[in-house]
């Protein structure tokens, strides 16, 4: 049965691959994007998740066209990498505001319809960096680690209403964001990955779609690493 799916930050990279995966399964897919031109084939809603009013308006548009959101994938995120002593307070707070507080906003709004329906799937996109840490990414790692505690609290809070909340923690993925790295940087990263390669965005999307499926109905509060073994033990 076709479900109403929302993928935040679904206009490129991992988010776009996730949107395609749900669309190929026959779901009605809406995406949010903050800038640029959105991809064709989806209900694209311009929305900055750091703005509560924009989040509310985005949900109203999606609900009018697709119905209440039944599957939410909170993927939108930013980086502002800098070593701690050079990191400004704005560098830190802006990343947390988007990656963690922005996720709070979109999940809270989606949960209203899910609670009424007594069912729902929420998948948060974290990162191996949130589990292992990474020099120069204290802000990003803190925001992504925070998603784990957020998800597990909600898994306990919403589970009695048949709403699952899980986390996918990708490793390094072959996207525009990682293609700007030098060959030396890329080689250094791959050297720490037991499988010896970057992930493809579609591999992250497959895990997300599984967690939103009936096959995963008894999985909640889980953190699924899709990182080629990079973060094992974390």
From TrEMBL:
<dbReference type="InterPro" id="IPR020904">
    <property type="entry name" value="Sc_DH/Rdtase_CS"/>
</dbReference>
<feature type="domain" description="Ketoreductase">
    <location>
        <begin position="3"/>
        <end position="176"/>
    </location>
</feature>
<dbReference type="GO" id="GO:0051287">
    <property type="term" value="F:NAD binding"/>
</dbReference>
<protein>
    <recommendedName>
        <fullName>3-oxoacyl-[acyl-carrier-protein] reductase</fullName>
        <ecNumber>1.1.1.100</ecNumber>
    </recommendedName>
</protein>
<comment type="pathway">
    <text>Lipid metabolism; fatty acid biosynthesis.</text>
</comment>
<feature type="binding site">
    <location>
        <begin position="140"/>
        <end position="144"/>
    </location>
    <ligand>
        <name>NADP(+)</name>
    </ligand>
</feature>
<keyword id="KW-0560">Oxidoreductase</keyword>
<dbReference type="InterPro" id="IPR036291">
    <property type="entry name" value="NAD(P)-bd_dom_sf"/>
</dbReference>
<dbReference type="InterPro" id="IPR057326">
    <property type="entry name" value="KR_dom"/>
</dbReference>
<dbReference type="GO" id="GO:0006633">
    <property type="term" value="P:fatty acid biosynthetic process"/>
</dbReference>
<keyword id="KW-0443">Lipid metabolism</keyword>
<comment type="function">
    <text>Catalyzes the NADPH-dependent reduction of beta-ketoacyl-ACP substrates to beta-hydroxyacyl-ACP products, the first reductive step in the elongation cycle of fatty acid biosynthesis.</text>
</comment>
<feature type="binding site">
    <location>
        <begin position="9"/>
        <end position="12"/>
    </location>
    <ligand>
        <name>NADP(+)</name>
    </ligand>
</feature>
<keyword id="KW-0275">Fatty acid biosynthesis</keyword>
<dbReference type="InterPro" id="IPR002347">
    <property type="entry name" value="SDR_fam"/>
</dbReference>
<dbReference type="Pfam" id="PF13561">
    <property type="entry name" value="adh_short_C2"/>
</dbReference>
<keyword id="KW-0276">Fatty acid metabolism</keyword>
<feature type="binding site">
    <location>
        <position position="75"/>
    </location>
    <ligand>
        <name>NADP(+)</name>
    </ligand>
</feature>
<dbReference type="InterPro" id="IPR011284">
    <property type="entry name" value="3oxo_ACP_reduc"/>
</dbReference>
<keyword id="KW-0521">NADP</keyword>
<keyword id="KW-0444">Lipid biosynthesis</keyword>
<comment type="similarity">
    <text>Belongs to the short-chain dehydrogenases/reductases (SDR) family.</text>
</comment>
<dbReference type="GO" id="GO:0004316">
    <property type="term" value="F:3-oxoacyl-[acyl-carrier-protein] reductase (NADPH) activity"/>
</dbReference>
<feature type="active site" description="Proton acceptor">
    <location>
        <position position="140"/>
    </location>
</feature>
<comment type="subunit">
    <text>Homotetramer.</text>
</comment>
């Amino acid at each position: 049965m076709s479900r109403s799916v929302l993928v935040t930050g679904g206009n490129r990279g991992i988010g776009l691959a996730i949107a395609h995966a749900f669309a190929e399964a026959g779901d009605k897919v809406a995406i949010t994007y903050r800038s640029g031109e959105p991809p064709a084939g989806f209900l694209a809603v311009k929305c900055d998740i750091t703005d509560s009013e924009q989040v509310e308006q985005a949900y109203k548009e999606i609900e009018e066209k697709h119905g209440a959101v039944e599957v939410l994938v909170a993927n939108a995120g930013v980086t502002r990498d800098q070593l701690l002593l050079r990191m400004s307070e704005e560098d830190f707070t802006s990343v947390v505001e988007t990656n963690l507080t922005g996720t709070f906003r979109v999940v809270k709004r989606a949960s209203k319809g899910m609670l009424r329906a007594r069912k729902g799937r929420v998948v948060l996109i974290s990162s191996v960096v949130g589990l292992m840490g990474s020099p120069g990414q204290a802000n990003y790692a803190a925001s992504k680690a925070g998603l784990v505690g957020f998800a597990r609290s909600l898994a306990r809070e919403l589970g009695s209403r048949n709403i699952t909340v899980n986390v996918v923690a990708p490793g390094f993925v072959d996207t525009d964001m990682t293609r700007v790295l030098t060959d030396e940087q890329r080689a250094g990263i791959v050297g720490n990955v037991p499988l010896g390669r970057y992930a493809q965005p579609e591999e992250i999307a497959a895990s997300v779609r599984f967690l939103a499926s009936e096959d995963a109905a008894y999985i909640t509060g889980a953190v699924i690493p899709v990182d080629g073994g990079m973060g094992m033990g974390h």
